[in-house]
Request: fold
Amino acid sequence: MNETDEIRGTAQGTAPVPLSVLDLVTVGAGHTATEALQTSVKISRLAESRGYHRYWVAEHHSMPGVASSSPAVILAHLAAHTTRIRLGSGGVMLPNHAPLVIAEQFGTLEAMAPGRVDLGLGRAPGTDGATAAALRRTDRLGEGADDFPEQLAELTRFLDGSFPSGHPYARIHAVPGPIQSTSPGGVQSPHRPPVWLLGSSGFSARLAGSLGLPFAFAHHFSAQNTIPALDLYREFFRPSAVLDAPYALIGVSALATDDEREAGRQVLAAALNMVRLRTGRPGLVPTPEEAAAYEFTSMEREFITTWNSNVIHGTAEEVRAGLDDLQKRTGADELMLTSHAHSGDLRLRSYELIADAYGLPQAA
Reply:
């Protein structure tokens, strides 16, 4: 399998494009991180059995309701519970880490799950400024984002073992990695995870296009920028050894429930969680009952109206119709679904209902 084959998925059932999963490992009030991680295992196994193409985990920090601070650790756990589905980061925030560390982590994951690991990279901190400063041991945060292209180039050279002779890092190798295939007696595969660029604006779209890399856009929290960013990606795209044509997926917030009213209750609770996050009060995902009793200010209600307008929710048929419309409007090559609900069981059920609505294959 070449790198292009790993990137481009195949639509299953009646879905217009491949469907995938983005997991934030959300923790609801009254539940533990252990329970959230157990739910992630269940969802990953369901996704694999029903024909979802890939399963990504996002890096976030200092958010009580999001237990995905260590994507590489979680992906190693999921690799032990799955056999075929692609696993990856959506994404690892490159400025938070030394490129060599990421190359080592994802080289290890590739050794654990050969041929099914994706490395999605973002340039945002995935948290607030103070936490980013603690992660990076510096308060000069702008430099990390500005240096993203250079950090990406360094990471790619570590992944490929391709520093030129005379470079200060020429004799440094990410292990597991290509050096093992060229060492005496080496039989290690030189293959490494394909790199994706993630974004919520135009910067990464242009960079991904100019480098001929696949691009993932965060429609689920930056919907107003989706079409402009995808247009930029396609405009700037240059064929590469990785891709001969653009390939873009978009993250979509989608929740299907058996009862349409329940979808509305869960979406309101998730929106309250986002209100608290945006106003510096991050916490566990509240219950629908707490959200129903909460007295929203007029400004908060305005925010929720805007936020929820981009959440596709309702019955399975309603969600399918919404996803179909979104794909047609954006021309996305893949839809990556993220379901936000207080209950892990409801999140699991949502992916099952969407699979049923599209006639995705049943487990043997």
Q: What stands out?
A: The chain has a mean pLDDT of 93.
